[in-house]
Write a structure and sequence with these properties.
The chain has about 160 residues and is α/β, with parallel strands linked by helices. Helix content is about 20%, strand content about 35%.
Length: about 160
Amino acid sequence: MMALLQRVGCAHVEIAGQTVGQIGPGLLVLLCAERGDTPQQSDKLLAKILKLRIFSDAQGKMNLSVQNLDGQGMVGGLLVVSQFTLAADTAGGNRPGFSAAALPEDGRRLYQHFVAQARLAHPLVQTGEFGADMQVHLVNDGPVTIPLRIAPGPR
């Protein structure tokens, strides 16, 4: 599984002109399941995201996680958006291939698992809609953009 994290001042997702998910300060999580990914990888990725210290403390040092922002007087949100295009293969020409992405039914299952676990572990989780044509609006804070990938474990 992989994610592209963007630290945001605010972000929201629209579908057909309607806002379906929005957060203030926090993380926009663009989430991609690849073929062979498991719920255990999803759980590891979520744990890493929640603990990653990429928010500034009082001294301006990246020392706080999204879960530590409550000590700064705010609840950091997670806006989780499915994005299979993170699995793009551009090695063979100018048109990306997506054969590494999970099949849609597997991707949906892993996305839903990730979101359910995130809602159990964090107080503010919003989402897009799996498979929908979405417009994502964000104010990238910093900017801070970090790719994460959890490789499969032993089989």
